[in-house]
Amino acid sequence: MHVLEAVIERLDRWLSALLDAMVIALAGLLLILLNWAVFARFILNDSVSWGEELPAHLLAMLTFIGAAYLTRTNEHLGFDAVLRVMSKRGQRVVTALNLVLMGVFGALLAWYGGIAAASFAGRSLISIDAPMMLFRGAMPLGGALIAVFCAVRLVGILTDRIDPMDLLPESDT
Question: Cβ(120)–Cβ(132) under 8 Å?
Fold first, then answer.
């Protein structure tokens, strides 16, 4: 079992670094493109053709990848005041139930997001020649990552390897 734990831990670190890089890259690219579009329009008096479409699709990507990132870093929206005053057993039950619900949501997002993304196969953005699947694929990817993160944590909660208080936002501990 120790080998499996080491593999999961290594994979978790790698995936965390990848998510960090993706969120930073998407947010940075969005910042640069939006600033360039504003600069081109108001300073150069020459609007770019992709000024609305590309940033909108990047923002959608950032939303789904960011949701997975926030799930991974325990910074997603949550109400933990009641959880803090519960018994350890109550904390485990509530946390496990929460992880199951979040995991089901992530799995549904991955499944139906995949169906929605597949419906855009072969189509490109209007303003630039980039496949829509590149942008729409963020929804099933984000959902799948949420489901995986929740499943791994649920196993940790159920096997008593993770304390529910460890899953509170990092700034609270």
Answer: yes
Cα separation of 122 and 113, whole Å? 17
Residue 12: domain span = 2-172
Which three-class secondary structure string do you get for 61-118?
HHHHHHHHHHHHCCCCCCCCHHHHHCCHHHHHHHHHHHHHHHHHHHHHHHHHHHHHHH
Q: What pTM was estimated for this model as a whole? A: 0.88
pLDDT, residue 171, reads 47
Query: Mean of the pLDDT values across residues 98-117?
Result: 96
Write out pLDDT tens, residues 117-128. Answer: 999 988 998 888
Residue partners of 1: CB distance under 8 A and separation at least 6: none
Question: How confident is the model over 71-91, as pLDDT tens digits?
Answer: 998 887 777 878 888 899 999
Give the C-alpha separation, 13 to 7, whole Å.
Answer: 10
Distance from C-alpha of 128 to C-alpha of 51, rounded to nearest angstrom: 11
When divided into structural domains, the chain yields a total of 1
Helices (H) and strands (E) in the chain, counts: 6, 0
